[in-house]
Design brief:
By secondary structure, this protein is α/β, with parallel strands linked by helices. The chain has 13 helices and nine strands. Strands 1, 2, 3, 4, 5, 6, 7, 8 and 9 form a nine-stranded mixed β-sheet that branches. Helix 10 packs antiparallel against helix 11.
């Protein structure tokens, strides 16, 4: 069995995917690289995937599928993964090669214990290539170092320290057991990837390593602000899906620190959906924002009360035209501080 399966969803990625794959290859025989060509038609992506698979048959596998979106690429990788652990790396991102070696060494050590580790967390780095700026997101205030721990051992989460797909490595079988399957043809499903499985995670290890390099700056990138405004319905869809996973009472039944974190994550999703529906300046989207909150209030009043209070306190749902303008202004201030897109 391979130690780590890394899935790279690829869609018309010829201009940058080679850099990604070359960094992953430094993992050697411990790693399995699954290149999922998501129905690319505009460039040489399918052929590049096949060439890597032919050149490194013991490490790289190429899978070609009809276009299903990023989430289906992740699903396809998970269905085919043979590694004990599973990670996703987007084709325009890459891993730090030295950090990868240290992470694999620790994973190998932890995999030999009596109980397998469920989740490893590492730092990630926002790489604003055009601006020449890097910003590291660390979890040193949240997680203890040098030991396996549980949710009860969490410290204090800062607003910039939410788990992203970039920061997690999951045990493969745990993901399968929890029934993770991301929706097709939908952006922003990485939020589901780092939310739905969390109650199944019983053991965690944090490495203070700047492993994942997250490229920021392409105009067509999904986190580009104008792109997010255009795709606001997909952000809204993901938020609604996440609200359906666990009721407020269910979240309250989890270990308290885990339940609190998951509520905070939901409040962030509600805030982001609200902000971008406002930023679109379309009357119908303002109605969608109101309906999002009204539907939650009707379905789960306790969840609504908790999330509405939190979102209001961080500028997600101020009422009126002036309130909406203030909300967007505060969002842009946070954007400048945390450099998240």
């Amino acid at each position: 069995m391979k130690l780590l399966s890394v899935t790279v969803p690829c869609y018309n990625s010829q201009d940058y995917m080679r850099h990604c794959v070359e960094t992953l290859l430094q993992g050697g025989d411990d790693i399995e690289i699954i290149l999922v060509d998501d129905g690319s038609t505009k460039d040489d992506t399918p052929a590049i995937c096949d060439r890597y698979a032919q050149q490194y048959p013991e490490i790289v596998r190429a899978i070609h599928q009809e276009n299903g979106g990023h989430g289906e690429g992740v699903n396809q990788g998970l269905r085919n993964a043979q590694g004990m652990y599973y990670k996703v790396v987007d084709s325009d991102d890459w891993l730090n090669e030295d950090a990868l070696q240290r992470v694999l060494t620790k994973l190998r050590e932890l995999s030999q214990g009596e109980e397998p580790l469920d989740m490893m967390v590492c730092n990630y780095v926002y790489e604003h290539v055009a601006e020449g700026i890097s910003k590291v997101v660390r979890y040193t205030d949240v997680f203890p170092e040098g030991k396996v721990f549980t949710w009860a051992d969490l410290g204090h989460w800062k607003p910039s320290e939410y788990l992203l797909m970039h920061s997690v490595i999951y045990r493969t079988q745990m993901l399968r057991d929890c029934g993770l399957e991301l929706p097709k043809h939908t952006f922003y499903v990485d939020n589901i990837f780092v939310y739905q499985p969390l109650p199944q995670v019983k053991s965690i290890y944090y490495m203070n390593e700047d492993l994942y390099r997250y490229f920021i700056g392409r105009d067509d990138q999904s986190v580009n602000e104008q792109v997010m405004i255009k795709r606001v319905d997909q952000q809204l869809r993901v938020t609604r899906i996440m609200l359906d996973f666990y009721s407020y009472d269910t979240l309250r039944s989890f270990e308290p620190k885990l339940g609190t974190y998951m509520l905070r994550y939901l409040s962030m999703m509600m805030m982001i959906s609200s902000i971008f529906l406002i930023m679109s300046e379309e009357p119908e989207n303002l109605e969608k924002k109101d309906k999002l909150w009204k539907d939650l209030k009707a379905k789960d009043p306790a969840m609504y009360k908790k999330l509405h209070y939190r979102a209001l306190s961080i500028a997600g749902t101020f009422p009126g035209k002036g309130g909406r303008k203030l909300s967007v202004g505060l969002y842009h201030i946070a954007q400048k501080i945390y450099k998240f897109n």
